[in-house]
Amino acid sequence: MKLTRLTVHHYRDIVPGTELTPGPGLNLVLGENGSGRTTLLELCSRVLASDFSSLIEEPFALEYTLDFPGMKLRVYARNDSDTTPGPEAAERQGAALLPLRPSGPAPLLRPLVELELRWTSPAAHLVMRADDEGLDCKVDGERVWSRAMHWSLLDRSVWTLLFMTAQYIDVGVKERLKALLRQTFLLAPQRFDEALGMFERLGAIRYAMEAHDGDVFPLGLMALPSWMPAWLRERVEQETPTGALELRHDALEESFLARFVQLAGFAEGRFRVEVLEKQSFENGGRVGFGGFGFHFTRRDGRTLTHEALGFGHKRLLSLLYYLDVNGDFAILDEPANGLHPRLVEACLRELGTRQVFLASHNPLTLEPPPFDSEEALRAALVVCRLERHAGRERIAWSHPSRELTRALFEAHRHGTRPLAALLREHGLW
User: Which is it for strands 2-11 and 329-333: parallel, antiparallel or unpaired?
Assistant: First the structure.
């Protein structure tokens, strides 16, 4: 999954009409303190999760595009008093959607979500419109499902709305929707913050799964490595868990735990998961987990828990865990904080093919890979700054000018100066 376009029609103090077209790999978010870098990272998190529940009391209007292999999803999400269709709605959707709400006095904020999903091989086109009173869906121009709703639309993510729709539409499209939802429904991407917020959240993670007639369903948002649900299920099926389950670092060579033990120079590491509940009922059961903990053994035999790790090792452990959870993307705020340059370089290698949004005030430890074109370099640089707009100071996000990008690319391509030094020379970093 890649975020290929983000348009801000209205969001906090961002200049209206801001449009970004991020690159598929590393995207550097540049700017001084107070210029909106963290605001951009947080917005990327909300968009990739397609969950706007934290903005339920806040006016906004956003449009974005997510690309998947063989699929493209365009979303327009709004929460304001305007009742007109979204921008370019006629071009995107034609006459596909029916008005859901009768005319009359409007409340202060009225949420609206419009989405368009296109598949290739074979081609199919799904369009959905939902507000706080109803949902309407069409496939290839034919109305397939509609229902009234009497709950807050923004309490549900876009993936939840698609999940509801998938139960009632054409079988072929339903199966293709299910394939998409398996990738996205439980995503809860967060910003990897500049301090220890992610480390502290590890201890608060709760996860549960239920079994019904042989099928297993996860419950709630999942901030787990992709391998962990299967491992938990296997352990539960092999034994009757009481107390806790443990995993040694060498049991899974590619896990975050194995990578941490190697990079931190420990002899051994163990990951502990508490079994919080276990119950059986007709045709199934439920198991709940939480209380994540770690124990590490030094090369001299001394042991310590995760609480006794130093600041840098806590950051490293939580970053590797974060990357093990998010295989397609990473949203990183000052990832070099507290890390030795050797560990920074190792973490950059761990990013692999993910789409990355990275903000850092320390360019000396962050040298991105070469870019093969001016356009690729321009897409990968997002400049954050403050500017006067309509008589007030607002946050402006933009890619560099094409002239500046050309100069940067030529110098970068010839290898005369590191990109970080070039960006500082031109006042971008």
Answer: unpaired
Q: Based on the domain organization, do 109 and 219 belong to the same domain?
A: no
Q: At what angle do helices 311-325 and 256-264 cross, to 10 degrees?
A: 150
| Count of domains forming the chain | 2
Mean pLDDT of 39-50: 95
Structural domain of 150:
52-184
Q: Do residues 228 and 128 share a domain?
A: no
Averaged confidence pLDDT in the chain: 87
Each residue's pLDDT tens digit, 162-187: 888 888 888 888 888 888 887 776 67
Query: Distance between CA atoms of 161 and 154, rounded to whole angstroms?
Result: 10
∠ CA 356-357-361 to the nearest 5 degrees?
Answer: 125
Q: How far is Cα 350 from Cα 342, in angstroms, rounded to an integer?
A: 13
| Single-letter amino acid code for the residue at 167 | Q
Tell me whether strands 215-219 and 207-212 are parallel, antiparallel or unpaired. Answer: antiparallel
On whether the pTM is more than 0.85, the answer is yes
pLDDT band per the 50, 70, 90 thresholds, residue 199: very high
Contact (CB, 8 A) for 14 and 394: yes
**Domain final residue pick, 152, 184, 216:** 184
